[in-house]
């Protein structure tokens, strides 16, 4: 005796249990090691190259002024490998090291996320509304070796750098340059 509810019949308890059992019986092989950048992004890039997947944007960003940045899977893969090299070589980071990114939502924010996934570097995101005191706390608590921020937020970071013993490199996202900072755009 099932009664209709919004056009659907209620499932009997036996049907629910049967469905649950069928889900639990499904076994999938889990990879020992999984990396989104190489296992998904690079695979989709190769599918596009081979013509087995339609070329769609992997990333599409539009700001308030209508400026657009559009990257295919191939472009995002290429740029994220370059950003990974910047983090590894110019910043001297390696797998397991921590980096704090205090950035507004600019394309580089996503690019650095993928670069960190690719290299095994631990990304600690921070909102651009953090104060110098907030940044100091996060740098000290995380023992981050690198901080990435915009040219407008760099002065707040500079005011706390002397108290951060683990910080080895500072990376700026923007067009300008600053003493003691590496510029992401220049390094890319």
From TrEMBL:
GO terms for cellular component: mitochondrial matrix. SUPFAM superfamilies: Acetyl-CoA synthetase-like (SSF56801). It comes from the Eukaryota. One of its GO terms (biological process) is acyl-CoA metabolic process. The keyword Nucleotide-binding applies. Its EC number is 6.2.1.2. InterPro entries: AMP-dep_synth/lig_dom, ANL_N_sf, Mitochondrial_ACSM. Coiled coil: none annotated. It catalyses: a medium-chain fatty acid + ATP + CoA = a medium-chain fatty acyl-CoA + AMP + diphosphate. Keywords: ATP-binding, Fatty acid metabolism, Ligase, Lipid metabolism, Nucleotide-binding. One of its GO terms (molecular function) is ATP binding. It is an enzyme of class 6 (ligase). Residues 55-174 form the AMP-dependent synthetase/ligase domain. PANTHER family: ACYL-COENZYME A SYNTHETASE, ACYL-COENZYME A SYNTHETASE ACSM5, MITOCHONDRIAL. Belongs to the ATP-dependent AMP-binding enzyme family. This is medium-chain acyl-CoA ligase. It comes from Campylorhamphus procurvoides. The gene is Acsm3_0.
